[in-house]
């Protein structure tokens, strides 16, 4: 490694099954593009505050997820340390501002370099 370079840290990727709500359910009217950022409700912190953190959603071969549809995907946390309590089986509401627009069920997690 060259002087002054920083070794990259592995990114955390979480396998999820994501369903984007339909507009009738309060979801978006447009499809959600693969690689887009969203806010995810991770539950409450130890002091009772709501933990909503950023994460990028990768939809595999799909370019976008239409409202009302469901797919297997990868979720990449913006700050992985803040996602330490996320485990398989958790349901993570997906937010657009304060509105819930989808839900992801955590299937598994992997660290990818």
Feature tags:
single chain, 113 residues, mainly beta, Elongation Factor Tu (Ef-tu), domain 3, six-stranded antiparallel β-barrel, two-stranded antiparallel ribbon, 0% helix, globular
Describe the structure.
- The chain has 113 residues and is mainly β.
- It has a single domain, classed as Elongation Factor Tu (Ef-tu), domain 3 (Beta Barrel).
- It is 0% helix and 53% strand.
- It contains no helices and eight strands.
- The chain has strands at residues 11-20, 32-33, 36-44, 50-58, 64-65, 70-77, 91-96, 99-112.
- The strands form two sheets. A six-stranded antiparallel beta barrel has the order 1-6-4-3-7-8.
- Strand 3 (36-44) and strand 4 (50-58) form a beta hairpin.
- The mean pLDDT is 89.
Quick synopsis:
This protein has 113 residues and is an all-beta fold. The protein has a single domain (11-112), classed as Translation factors (Elongation Factor Tu (Ef-tu), domain 3), CATH 2.40.30.
Topology (elements, then pairings):
Elements lengths: L10 E10 L11 E2 L2 E9 L5 E9 L5 E2 L4 E8 L13 E6 L2 E14 L1
Antiparallel strand pairs: 1-6, 1-8, 2-5, 3-4, 3-7, 4-6, 7-8
Radius of gyration: 15 Å
Task: From the 3D structure, determine the CATH topology.
Answer: Elongation Factor Tu (Ef-tu), domain 3
Helix content: under 10%
Query: What is the strand arrangement across the widest sheet?
Result: 1-6-4-3-7-8
Tell me what the CATH architecture is. Answer: Beta Barrel
Domain module tally: 1
Mean pLDDT: 89
The unreliable regions are none
- Specify the overall morphology: globular
N-to-C terminal Cα separation, in Å? Answer: 16 Å
What is the overall number of helices?
A: 0
Number of strands: 8
In terms of DSSP E residues, the strand content is over 45%
**Fourth-level CATH superfamily:** Translation factors
Which class best fits the helix and strand makeup?
A: mainly beta
What is the helix/strand order? EEEEEEEE
Please outline the major beta sheet: 6 strands, antiparallel, barrel
